[in-house]
Amino acid sequence: MSQPTIESILHEKRSFPPSPEFSAQARIKSMEDYQALYDAAAADPEGFWGDLAEKELEWFQKWDKVLDWNPPTAKWFVGGQLNISHNCLDRHLGTWRKNKAALIWEGEPGDSRTLTYAQLHREVCQMANVIKSFGVQKGDVVGIYMPMIPEAAIAMLACARIGAVHTVVFGGFSAEALRERLKDASAKLVITADGGYRKDAVVPLKPQVDKALDDNAIPSVDNVLVVQRTGDEITMDSGRDHWWHELQKTASADCPAEAMDSEDMLFILHTSGSTGKPKGVVHTTGGYNLYTHVTCQWTFDLQDTDVYWCTADVGWITGHSYIVYGPLSNGATTVMYEGVPRPSNPGCFWDVVEKYGVTIFYTAPTAIRAFMKAGERHPKSRNLSSLRILGTVGEPINPEAWVWYHRVIGGERCPIVDTWWQTETGGFMLTPLPGATATKPGSATRPFPGILADVVDLEGNPVEANQGGYLVIKHPWPSMMRTVYGDFDRFRRSYWENIPPKDGQHFYFAGDGARKDEDGYFWVMGRVDDVISVSGHRLGTMEIESALVSHPAVTEAAVVGKPDELRGESIVAFVSLESEHDPSEELAKALKQHVVEDIGAIARPQEIRFTDDLPKTRSGKIMRRLLRNLAAGEEISGDTSTLQDRSVLDKLRGGA
Ligand code: 6R9
């Protein structure tokens, strides 16, 4: 091996094939079906995507060429024209779906709303006209800073309808983080709400917008559109701020969808690098529409009777692709929930499943671990029999959490789709197809048809089975990011140059380590920035953490390397316990021993630190680089604006 790779030490052997009954009713029913699609796409990607684009979407004008690949610039459906809001709304109006529920919304305080396709279309058109009335034109950028209410999706679709580029900023971000993102995108208009509900409290939003725009900090913004949600008193600047409910009264519901070029920008979504300013990931119209549509349909085996619920926030790519665009483009019913599980009702998610008869439930490992900690009695006391598919995204899922999810939430009958993808990829890259793929706990299984994924060393050579390496994509796909907004060079450097092109082959690498097993299944091992180097062995975080989580006392674990003169690095594990266990010297010893027995002496943590909570991003990913600083006794460095709860760091600093 010419270049350092990553060692794999965990070997999960359990396998869960779909039941014959499930497969029989599924869109894609067997591995033979999958393989046929995969092979067809690999042999002729343009034919494959071109056929799907023709069959699955409506175009105002057909493309001249499916793909123009000038690495790292890909253009898809060149010369084609369409509008994603038309594909998500208008085209369903001429069918029976006109009066089907498009969006079912449940507010945290218990209020709710259902919008049919016709109703959603009407409100989107009205908001689009209001946005236009502020002078926003095709190509202008609109910032969206909203709670999880229907108007968040309405605002996105309204922008798309008139060709304005949306940039959604998660409603939990601070005024500074909001300012930085709006400024980077040169937003002209901001759409927000007075506030929203989260964890039994009102989260004020408009005051944050005021702060972000203070002292004319972003000269490009000249209007703010405010949705009334909480009714709390806020300051309205008469020259700049406008109430949506007032303007809606007189807004026309007639707003034709603008014909957009396939490659016209659809949105910018910022993703935080560990250092430097956030990257504005740019997605365009045609390829994104097609890819999110097809992945949503096949991976969730969408049927017209489904009630589909993705628990993400629209502020993340998961919310963009799989709450709004993917499901609506398919004419599905998508559920949107305003809140999060909270002390006053740890079972609130299961209430929503029961109330609406949710059939497909898609969430993140961090939430699953929190459900485990809260206890089985919450899901057990609700009727979850409507569920037929479960999904997970955001981090590698520890096998024990997977098995719990399968047993307790899925009643051992629901296939679990573990979807590996990124803001940058726009849609699923590695994922099971639920009627076809036998799943293995902790593996995102196989590439979606059309995705040429591989695990390679730093020179681009494929590594052997079960050897860890760098997860790459070797062929462009329709929803790949097109650039970092305003910084093409950063795009090229960040994703296309880590593994230099070889013999005309370009490698997209976005930072994850992985291994492929003897069945060709991919196991994502975590970010390569987090790899720990012990006595010359390079170890991924996921495997050691999964060994810890497989101990009955542990709910969640994060491991980091700490500089060590002898070994290069030693392993420090931050561990949170099930409620019935208390920290002790004996338990720390037992956990170290458990890791040694499970995966070997090389992974033995030198130090165990017990903690109630781990520092996470607001989308629930563990921020190991902060833990690395703590373990080394250093000051916290780098960007912390995406941190969910600052007090976690203070507690970790004070304790341990
Ligand atoms: C969709 C989303 C992307 C990073 C990605 C990887 C991690 C996401 C995962 C997963 C293992 C999965 N990740 N899904 N790791 N298994 N199923 O999360 O986008 O916020 O951009 O994060 O998340 O490390 O590189 P984003």
Automatic annotation (TrEMBL):
Pfam families recorded: ACAS_N, AMP-binding, AMP-binding_C
UniProt cofactor(s): Mg(2+)
PROSITE patterns: AMP_BINDING (PS00455)
Example GO molecular function: acetate-CoA ligase activity
Modified residues (N6-acetyllysine): K621
Enzyme Commission code: 6.2.1.1
Domain AMP-binding enzyme C-terminal: 543-621
Transmembrane segments: none
Binding site for Mg(2+): V549, H551, V554
EC supergroup of this enzyme: ligase
Highest taxon of source: Bacteria
Posttranslational modification: Acetylated. Deacetylation by the SIR2-homolog deacetylase activates the enzyme.
Keyword vocabulary terms for this entry: Acetylation, ATP-binding, Ligase, Magnesium, Metal-binding, Nucleotide-binding
Binding site for ATP: G394, E395, P396, D418, T419, W420, W421, Q422, T423, D512, R527, R538
Reactions catalysed: acetate + ATP + CoA = acetyl-CoA + AMP + diphosphate
Domain Acetyl-coenzyme A synthetase N-terminal: 34-88
Binding site for CoA: R198, K199, D200, A201, T318, S535
Ranges for domain AMP-dependent synthetase/ligase: 98-482
PANTHER family hit by this protein: ACETYL-COENZYME A SYNTHETASE, ACETYL-COENZYME A SYNTHETASE 1
HAMAP family recorded: Ac_CoA_synth
Family assignment from sequence similarity: Belongs to the ATP-dependent AMP-binding enzyme family.
The protein, known as: Acetyl-coenzyme A synthetase
Organism whose genome encodes this protein: Phormidium yuhuli AB48
Encoding gene (name): acs
